[in-house]
Description:
Blueprint: H1 2-23, E1 28-43, E2 48-53, E3 60-61, E4 66-71, H2 73-148, H3 153-187, H4 190-223, E5 226-228, E6 233-238, E7 245-246, E8 251-268, E9 280-285, E10 293-300, E11 305-308, E12 318-328, E13 341-347
Antiparallel strand pairs: 1-8, 1-13, 2-4, 2-7, 3-6, 4-5, 6-8, 8-12, 9-10, 9-13, 10-12, 11-12
Helix pairs in contact: 2-3, 2-4
Amino acid sequence: xxxxxxxAAIAVAAGVYWSSQADADTGLVQVNGRMExxxxxxxxxxxxxxxxxxxxxxxxxxxxxVMLKLRDEAVAARSAQxxxxxxxxxxxxxxxxxxxxxxxxxxxVLTQTAxxxxxxxxxxxxxxxxxxxxxxxxxxxxxxxxxxxxxxPQALERAQVATKSALxxxxxxxxxxxxAQLNLQNARLSPQRIQSRSAELQAAVAxxxxxxxxxxxxxxxxxxxxxxxxxxxxxxxxxxxxxxAVNHGVPLYAIADLSKVYLKAYIPEPMLGRIQLGQAAxxxxxxxxxxxxxxxxxxxxxxxxxxxxxxxTRDERTKLxxxxxxxxxxxxxxxxxxxxxxxxxxxxxxxxxxxxxxx
Length: 359
């Protein structure tokens, strides 16, 4: 493998050197290389076990497509528990809201009713007090008459009974006044009760929000058991098998981002001063030899690489080459795949006419 790669590198470097020398006078530089792309590693965000693989190497995937499913009973249990706790807290909030609304609506009515009861009880006390006073006066008058012999003992007994009854009614009315006054004081405490109930409601709302946040966190963790493709791309590697246990951050797949495809090639050190970022270029492939793809120079390495050659002369034993990347600009018409061999033409002069690569 190392020998084959070395030979390939030699061939690429040699082709780059000679083609660039041959085309420099025409205002174009020809480079040869292969298409590559940015690679995205898809990893697990929660520790779990592989339940199902839905894509394999070589498959095309779309952003958001399900690639695999993980299984973790503990995560599902935590999610269900968090949802139940959030529902219970929300029910408590609703109950307190209803209670507070009822308390506010009853506050004024209760105060008015209690005030009316106090007024009525005081009026009744006044009425009964007058009756008791009159009964006492009548009893005293009958007593004097009885002592003088004008009335019998029965009349005095009746007057005493009436007075006793009136006094008992007066005591009862006075107790009713005290009770009504207590009810009025209790009704006037409604603002404090409303304030206390409002504080309970605020605490319940805070707990409900906390429970909701925990439910969302649990749901998010449960959602992580379904792994989706982050971008449109090509699955180039798979690192796991069904049934395997994986930890957080363990790579699962590698995806080549097809929207970030570029031609990777090399230029010899003598040509480095003539290649600049943003220069117009074209990419030619064997698949579409008559349809070059517009591109531009998007990257020039700041370090040279030594490419050994199988030559005997001292000055040809090594050559310094720099990596360059040509990025297509026709993103809507791309038919390029990573690993595909391709040729590139870099325009050194704005007036230089394009032509196909020479082989």
